[in-house]
């Protein structure tokens, strides 16, 4: 069970982050859940702001992607009936606010993908996009979207 794996790793799912605008954090359609973009919020605040490759290092951004995916899992879990109802990770989209010459977006988004692999094993293998952008909401360095398959 994923809840047991989280416990083994010493990870607690955070509370679902309240939307910053007019949208819902996650939506279930059939046996699929898709999340809105999730920022690496910790207790309602961004631990770091700025562009990766300038004010934020790639390693810091990778750590933030890990936080953002936990927020995405919390959002998905909230409409899936709990974390143990998530059967498979389908797709991850990672947005990285990048300095003009930064090209390491895939390495940053690995922070999310690697954690999903640790938690879900083979069911954590997913398709993915890692996209460099000029700016994200609240000057966040990363934002992550998640699509999962849930048990009936």
UniProtKB/TrEMBL annotation:
Ranges of residues in domain Endoribonuclease L-PSP/chorismate mutase-like: 5-140
InterPro entries from the UniProt entry: Endoribo_LPSP/chorism_mut-like, RutC-like_sf
The organism's place on the tree of life at top rank: Bacteria
Gene3D superfamilies per the UniProt record, alphabetical: RutC-like
Protein name: RidA family protein
């Amino acid at each position: 069970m994923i809840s047991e794996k989280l416990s083994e790793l010493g990870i607690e799912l955070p509370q679902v982050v309240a939307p910053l605008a007019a949208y819902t954090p996650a939506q279930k359609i059939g046996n699929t859940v898709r999340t809105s973009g999730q920022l690496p919020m910790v207790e309602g605040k961004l631990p770091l702001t700025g562009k990766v490759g300038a004010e934020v290092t790639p390693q810091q951004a990778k750590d933030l992607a890990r936080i953002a995916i936990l927020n995405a899992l919390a959002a998905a879990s909230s409409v899936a009936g709990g974390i143990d109802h998530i059967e498979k990770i389908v797709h991850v989209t990672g947005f990285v606010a990048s300095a003009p010459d930064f090209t390491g977006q895939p390495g940053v988004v690995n922070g999310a993908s690697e954690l999903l692999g640790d938690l879900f094993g083979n069911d954590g293998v997913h398709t993915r996009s890692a996209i460099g952008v000029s700016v994200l909401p609240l000057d966040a360095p990363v934002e992550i979207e998640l699509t999962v398959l849930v048990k009936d």
